[in-house]
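Reviewers of the previous submission asked for a worked example of the structure-prediction workflow described in the proposal, so we include one complete record here. The input consisted solely of the amino acid sequence. No template or homolog information was supplied to the procedure at any stage.
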Amino acid sequence: MVCALLWAETGSAQSSFRTEELFKRTGYNKQAGNMAITQDPAIDTLINRHILNNSRYNGLEGFRIQIYSSSARNAREESARVRAEFISIFPDIPSYSRFDAPGYYKIRAGDFRTKTEGTKYLLMVRRSFPDAYLVPDIINFSGQNKQQ
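From that input alone, the workflow returned the following structure tokens.
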């Protein structure tokens, strides 16, 4: 057990960095002055742990609009039809097809960082899909427009 913990710490130390590396600037005016950051070394450890914990996800926490969820026999075909309809009505909002055990097919749309942003689009989507609602989800980074 102890060996495993030491190995895990050594593995994470290889990709660690210091906080001051986050604030390095290139191409700045050398006569503008320097700033020295004095801090407890534990802050670097906390930042590295935060980065390690968040690297498990392929995205970040946010919100999506769920427009369809069903486990019926024809849910796969129905979800494809609903997604095609959504894409034809809202071509600018990315949509995602998803299968969750034990047999739910879901269609979710958007990559919203805040609940407020998601609610704005939810009101537009509800005109065509009245049962749509906002759900927390792992969203894509902006500019990483992945269609699933």
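The longest helix spans residues 75-89. We consider this example representative of the routine output the project will generate in years two and three.
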